[in-house]
């Protein structure tokens, strides 16, 4: 249904056109679960993801499967496909795969993409009722109740995927859901690091930029992450701030040693200040580190 609200009694609204896009699902549904169901916040953990195909109507199946993640995965260790009776159909060990040089192919299985919030696998056509997909990967979780949503695509041209439903996909796991919980505490900012702490932005291709990394925990909703570079007099020389739709997770910013006018700053010590707003702190949360610029 569509509901309209109107505070002006002299005005009215109407829907002239209404359209929907849809795709026929590649299978009837997919039941999935993940384990372990609980981990430490920000700690890299090895997860096992099971996805069971339900396809009694004999639909065409899918050849691409994505898993939504809270941050870029550290590794995709292995991918296996089993038939309804538990017989192994396909298996690939990707533990040595370079996730920066994709696709990584092992027989009929492949890692097609690894992004900051998901990874995608290439599969042989999966359509058999009862087929089971098992994926082992390493990732960190940054907020309580993170959902690892799976999506199945009939092919690379599919615009609207079939999403997995949490449930009992296998007797090997007892979680029956896609949510992973973490310990809840008052800390919302993880370690702030600057690498390298001494950098030389002289254009020689070696240590020309400083990478500023920060982890944020338990923060919901779009937030502005303020990244400021200050000299020792307290004057801001560069603003690297950005809005983040999903603030909980790992964030990285690069500083090339230049000020707001694009001019290289003088050599010296500079302070990196990261600040963002939270629901629990009226003045927000702030962390700082020092970085050295030399020529």
Number of helices: 0
Structural class: mainly beta
- Specify the helix fraction band: under 10%
Terminal residue distance: 64 Å
Q: Spatial order of the strands in the main sheet? A: 6-5-10-3-1-14
Q: Which residues form runs of ≥5 with pLDDT under 50?
A: none
Q: How would you state the average pLDDT, rounded? A: 89
Strand content: over 45%
Order of helices and strands: EEEEEEEEEEEEEEEEEEEEEEEE
Q: Count the E strands.
A: 24
Sheet with the most strands, sense and barrel status: 6 strands, mixed
Shape designation: globular
Rounded radius of gyration (Å): 24 Å
Task: Explain briefly what this protein structure is.
By secondary structure, this protein is mostly beta strands.
Can you characterise this structure?
- This protein is mainly beta and 295 residues long.
- The chain is built from no helices and 24 strands.
- The radius of gyration is 24 Å and the shape is globular.
């Amino acid at each position: 249904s569509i509901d309209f609200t109107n505070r002006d009694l002299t005005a009215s609204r109407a829907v002239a056109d209404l359209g929907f896009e849809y795709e026929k699902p590649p299978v009837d549904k997919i039941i999935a679960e993940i384990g372990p169901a609980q981990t430490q916040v920000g700690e890299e953990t090895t997860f096992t993801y099971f996805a069971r195909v339900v396809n009694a109507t004999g639909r065409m199946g899918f050849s691409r499967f994505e898993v939504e993640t809270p941050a870029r995965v550290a590794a995709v260790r292995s991918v296996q496909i089993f038939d309804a009776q538990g017989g192994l159909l396909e298996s690939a060990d990707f533990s040595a795969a370079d996730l920066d040089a994709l696709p990584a192919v092992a027989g009929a299985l492949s890692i097609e993409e690894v992004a900051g919030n998901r990874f995608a696998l290439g599969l042989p056509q999966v359509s058999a009722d009862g087929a089971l997909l098992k994926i082992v990967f390493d990732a960190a979780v940054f907020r309580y109740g993170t959902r690892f949503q799976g999506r199945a695509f009939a092919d690379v041209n599919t615009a609207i995927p079939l999403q997995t439903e949490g449930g009992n996909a296998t007797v090997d796991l007892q979680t029956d859901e896609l949510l992973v919980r973490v310990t809840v505490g008052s800390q919302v900012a993880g370690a702030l690091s600057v690498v390298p702490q001494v950098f030389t932005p002289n254009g020689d291709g070696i240590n020309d930029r400083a990478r500023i990394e920060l982890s944020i925990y338990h923060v919901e909703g779009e937030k502005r992450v303020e990244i400021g570079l200050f000299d020792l007099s307290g004057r801001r020389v560069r603003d690297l701030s950005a809005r983040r739709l999903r603030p909980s997770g790992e964030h990285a910013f690069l500083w090339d040693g230049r000020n707001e006018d694009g001019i290289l700053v003088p050599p010296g010590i500079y302070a990196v200040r990261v600040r963002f707003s939270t629901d629990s702190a009226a003045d927000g949360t702030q962390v700082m580190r020092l970085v050295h610029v030399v020529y």
